[in-house]
Amino acid sequence: IMLHSTLALSLLLIAVSSNLAMAIKKDKRAPQTLSRGWGDEITWVQTYEEGLYQAKKSNKPLMVIHHLEDCQYCQALKKAFAENEEIQEMAQNNFVMLNLMHETTDKNLSPDGQYVPRIMFVDPSLTVRADITGRYSNRLYTYEPQDIPFLIENMKKALRLIQTEL
């Protein structure tokens, strides 16, 4: 009987400690914000419609990032994007920001296909800027981690266009 209760007790302890370990592990993960890792200091809008509304209201361009959680290229770009201070600052101060893990109904946001990662700009007059493209002719709106300087230039271009056109 003694042996039996010792065994039962140790099994109970194992069960409790593994549950505890799982609870602690779960707790340590930062709460999922709208940033999804693209920049926690940035104020993100939740939907494309909200983004358009805010762009018009604030007279700032909307930057739309299409990405997927299990896409290694998205993860690599996200890391470079989140670590770049200039991008983070511009995104926070000069843009309405949206990152999406699903497609929108606006076909203008996928002029050359629905691939990820894809970054597009929409100006405050709600025009999708198909003229602000990345470096690759086969996927016009994709960027790789080494293209961060190019993305910064395109963000500045989106801001300049507003000043000159509107």
Write a compact overview of the structure shown.
Keywords: Signal. Residues 1-23 form the signal peptide. Helix content is 47%, strand content 9%.
Question: How would you describe this protein?
Answer:
- The chain is mainly alpha-helical and 166 residues long.
- Helix content is 47%, strand content 9%.
- A three-stranded mixed sheet has the order 2-1-3, sandwiched between helices.
- Helix 4 packs parallel to helix 5.
- The termini are far apart.
- Keywords: Signal.
- Total DSSP E strands: 3
Label the overall shape: elongated
Q: Pairing-aware structural class of the strands and helices?
A: mainly alpha
Q: Predict the CATH topology of the domain at 48-159.
A: Glutaredoxin
Strand order of the largest sheet: 2-1-3
Annotated CATH homologous superfamily of the domain at 48-159: Glutaredoxin
**Rg:** 22 Å
The CATH class of the domain at 48-159? Alpha Beta
Give the CA-CA distance, first to last residue: 85 Å
Can you tell me the CATH architecture of the domain at 48-159? 3-Layer(aba) Sandwich
Question: Quick one: biggest sheet?
Answer: 3 strands, mixed
Mean pLDDT, nearest integer?
Answer: 87
Give the low-pLDDT segments: none
* Helix content range: 40-55%
**Which percent range describes the beta-strand content?**
5-15%
Oligomer: single chain
| Series of secondary-structure elements, N-terminal to C-terminal | HHEHHEEH
Please tally the helical runs, counting DSSP H or I stretches of 4 or more residues.
5
